[in-house]
Amino acid sequence: MIIKLIKDVRRKTLAVKDSKDRLQIVTLKACDMLEFRAQGKRFRYEVPLAACYNLAVIYTCHNWYKKRLAKYNEAIKDGRRMHKPRKLPKIFNPVLYEALKLN
């Protein structure tokens, strides 16, 4: 059963740290925002869930392509004939691909 997000949900991360080695507190806000702040600090970083979804789509498709390409390279080494998988078109802003270091 899926519960609607009507209250903020806060969790402490296990391994995500900032540059000063402080753990991050993540808040899934009721207004469809994701919020990060360092433990013990007040300054917060917010990002819309739609932006996180777009990054997740890009990251997942890139991983899918890498797996297909590895399968293709293995088949070529074995002497089997296969079609090389095509890269998926970059439908989002190029800055998103750079943020994930996928270029």
Helix content: 25-40%
Average pLDDT confidence is: 90
Widest beta sheet: strand line-up: 1-2-3-4
- Total number of strands: 4
Radius of gyration: 19 Å
Instruction: Output the number of helix runs.
Output: 2
Overall shape:
elongated
Uncertain segments: none
Beta-strand proportion? 25-35%
Q: What this model shows, in words?
A:
The chain has 103 residues and is of the alpha+beta class. It folds into 2 domains: 1-42; 49-103. It has 2 helices and 4 strands; from the N terminus they run ββββαα. It has helices at residues 49-77, 94-99; strands spanning 9-17, 23-29, 33-38, 44-48. A 4-stranded antiparallel beta sheet has the order 1-2-3-4. Strand 1 (9-17) and strand 2 form a beta hairpin. The longest helix has 29 residues, at 49-77. It is elongated and about 60 Å long. The termini are far apart. The model has no long low-confidence stretch (mean pLDDT 90).
Overview features:
alpha+beta; 2 helices; elongated
Write the layout of secondary structure elements.
Blueprint: E1 9-17, E2 23-29, E3 33-38, E4 44-48, H1 49-77, H2 94-99
Antiparallel strand pairs: 1-2, 2-3, 3-4
